[in-house]
Predict the structure of protein-serine/threonine phosphatase.
Amino acid sequence: MSSAAEEANHKTEAPTAPAQENTSEENPLQAKADELGARGNEFFKEQNYEQAIALYTEAIETCPNERFYANRSFAHFRTESYGYALSDADKAISMKNSYTKAYYRRAAALMALGRFKKALADLEFVAKRCPSAKDAQDKYTECKKMVNKIAFEKAISVQHQEKSVEKMCRDMEFATIEDDYTGPKLENGKVTLEFMKSLLEWYKKQNKLHKNFAYRILCDMETLLKTQPSLVEIPVPDEQKFTVCGDIHGQFYDLLHIFEINGLPSPTNPYLFNGDFVDRGSFSVECIFTLFGFKLLYPNHFFLARGNHESFNMNQLYGFTGEVVSKYSQNMADMFTLVYNWLPLCHLINKKVLVMHGGLFSKDNVSLDDLRSIDRNCQPPEEGLMCELLWSDPHPLPGRVPSKRGVGIQFGPDVTEAFLKYNNLDYIIRSHEVKAEGYEVDHNGKCITVFSAPNYCDQMKNLGAFITLKGNDLTPKFTTYADSPHPSIRPMAYAYSLMS
């Protein structure tokens, strides 16, 4: 492989350190920077990306080099900070506009953000410079296919504007239930507690719910969700426990563990799952039908919020669409896209605690009525209140800064305090970010993150957590837990080939 091709290769190996030509006594800063970069590479290999980022940053501050920027870009990519990854790749290119690896890194960040046209231009540059590099050629070809696919889907989207799950269900014949099917069955077409218990056991054994019942659950979910507002108010009686869970991300066996240690959902044991039910983990179908089933069983005591991964682009990239097509059909994947459009965007507990997947806003004086009035039946836009509810993150410094993800914003403690005061709230709960302990309390206790997928993607080594509170005591209490064993199907097994 040519040197250009070697630079382009961006499989899962650690980033390479800068060349060592200028590490003599006449350039001691370069030598120090190279040593820092090499240490960063070692942490990268150990999947300690935060420490790798810190060392690459120190190397850049010591003696800037395009390769340090490219390496830090890759580390940011691994922490899902796609905005930072994009910025670092841009800086590397500005330092050396012929640096092939930086174009590769930028393309990866752009693809993660669903910006395939821009990614294609970078991959075309890489492919032309590396004609003998199979990896580069394959990724260029795959990205081109995705660009064409998106263009085709946009061209026919007008035909689907009147589409609904209910209409799709009417237009298709529900499959005959074979005599040898011994799995859970709806009773008179309805979800019951016995059905849900049977479904959990059925899924534990890696069986598939019959498509007849899967389609019916989707039809009923759309009907139910259409009756929900964008901001759902949840009254919790004084002595009743209420549980808030964060991201599940297709980790079905960890979802089961939550129910084992905290009890199955019921009218006296209500839950809110705060988005990102699917993608990355390879048991997303099992997770979503479990959650949808409990929502149908207990519509007033089991709540679901939309996350940024309940969207067409994310599902295409990170595995849910591929998993649904593998286990059922493309038609069902299309149905999920339509149902997700109706998921509520946030929940208000006892008029004092606001829960959303992402975070707060790029402007002041956003009211709860503003959130109630959001027309959510769409794919998430790239800006505005709906986007920020799904994508934003807190940060420790005052004010607002661009998002590390490239979508939404980062908001400081003053922004949180002003929003709470304006709306007479006590605090917010959000999810969206991996936390080592499964949760984190920021902004003087006013902004709480909860993340419920332990050892995220089988590599982050984080705990999972959920929050419990009572109607007469909204003080959050945290329960943490480690990951549970699962069948040997790797995360991202169904993901788009450019992302897996």
About this structure: DSSP finds 19 helices and 14 strands in the chain.
